[in-house]
Structure formats: C-alpha cells, structure tokens
Amino acid sequence: MAVTGLILVGFVTGHLVGNLQIFGHPDKINGYAHFLQSLGPVLWAVRLGLLVCAGLHVWAAVTLTLENWTARGPESYGIGKWLNAALASRYMKHSGVVVLAFIVYHLAHFTVGATQSGSFKSNLPDYSMAGDFHLLGFPIVAKGQVVHDVYSMVFLGFTNPFVSLFYIIAVGLLSLHLMHGVDSMFQTLGWRNQRWSGWLRKLVLIFSLAYFLGNVAIPGAILGGIVPPAAGTTAAVKAAVAVRSTSIPQR
To answer: What are the φ and ψ backbone dihedral angles of 188, each rounded to 5 degrees?
Structure first.
C-alpha cells in the first residue's frame, strides 16, 4: 500500500505540473504532450507500470479492509464512535472508490476520447508550433511542426460545467485521500519520528491543499474566461456547439 502509494503520488504530482502549462502559451502544453507521445514504447511501459501500481494499491486496500472485518468478528460494535481520527482517515475507502471511478472517466475523456462523439473529435484542429519547444534545455519540437492540439482538447473538455464540477469534486476527494494516505505512508515506511511528526503533518496538509487548488484552477480559469481559447480553438468550439445542438431534438 505505501510503496504503490508513493509511486502514484509522484505520478499525480507530475501530471498536475504538466497540466498547469495550460496557463502558458499553447506551445508549452502541446510541445510537452508531443514529447510524451513521441516516447512510444517507453510511454506505454510507464502507463502499464502505473496501471499495475494502481491495481496493487486497490488490492492492498481491499485486503486490509477484509482483514479488519475478520479481526472484528461476527459481532458488531455496540457503540460506534471515532476516537482521535481525522476526517480524511474515516472515509479513505469511500474517497478511494470515487477517485478510482474518476481516473477511469478521466482516461476515457482525455486519453482515449471515448466520451466524445466522433464528429466532435474530428473537428479538433491540429496545431502548428509557433516557436521551438525546449525541455530542460534540449530542443524537442521545432517551429512550424504540426502536433496534436492538446490545449484545445483540455479547453473544450472543461467548457462543459458538469464535467468541470465532477472534476472539482473528484480532485477534492483525491486531495482528502492524499492528506491521510501520504501521512500514513511516512509512518509505514518509518520516515516519521516523534520530533518532527508535527511539521511533517503540516507539510502534507500544505501539499494536499496546493494539489487541490492547482487542479481546481484549471477548470475554474477556463469557465471564468481567464484562460483564452487558442487560435484554432474558437472554430473547434463552434463546431462542437453545432454538433451538440443538432443532437438535441427540436420541438
């Protein structure tokens, strides 16, 4: 549970850092996404590794839950009362289930595109890089190279207020999950002692809050008009609205 949790925390943190490039020029997130896609087999190996970690994490959670039930025995407690248990720790199983459902939907929405109609996807424009894209000082994508318009994909995805609301609720539960999970991870791995456990707990709280605010800022800025559409996104938005309007029966 702790080891797979550490790997998954690293992934969601890196994932957020990549997504925050939506606040920069479209070259940033489009070039970064093209770099990841160009990794080919390496990218798929990382994806499979993360999938295995997620599966092991869920398996460990189910196993621990069943062991707790077995230890409790057939008799239920006469009085149910929490003693010195934080809110995040009380609902780890519940938040975990919602987070798992969110991950499946998030992948279907932005990675596979299974939640979007064929016409909607076909109207997403390709993007011609306005300048060179460098990563850690190394040239990755050249000016004028045509890449997938991930900027528009993210922008269009969060123009739907229902999708944005579900996303905000899910990352809120994920942040709550991280708040207790990361703290417990340090305890399990023996990285926390009595002298600095209080500071460590505060650091975990700050990290979880920053993670939540960073994720919420993306749909919030798009819905609030702070993040503008890219040059080709306006046409894509009009096409998407047209497709959605024709799918609504007229009276």
So the answer is: -65, -40
Which residue, 168, 178, 176, 173, is CA-closest to 214? 168
Residue pair 86/176 in contact (Cβ under 8 Å)? The answer is no
User: Confidence band (pLDDT; 50, 70, 90) for 6?
Assistant: confident
What per-residue confidence (pLDDT) applies to 154? 84
- Predicted confidence (pLDDT) per residue in 25-47, tens digit: 888 988 998 888 888 899 889 88
Torsion of CA 19, 23, 27, 32, to 10 degrees: -20
The torsion angles phi and psi of 59, rounded to 5 degrees, stand at -60, -45
Distance from chain centroid for Cα 229: 21
User: DSSP 3-state assignment of 135?
Assistant: strand
CATH architecture of 2-73+85-246: Up-down Bundle (1.20)
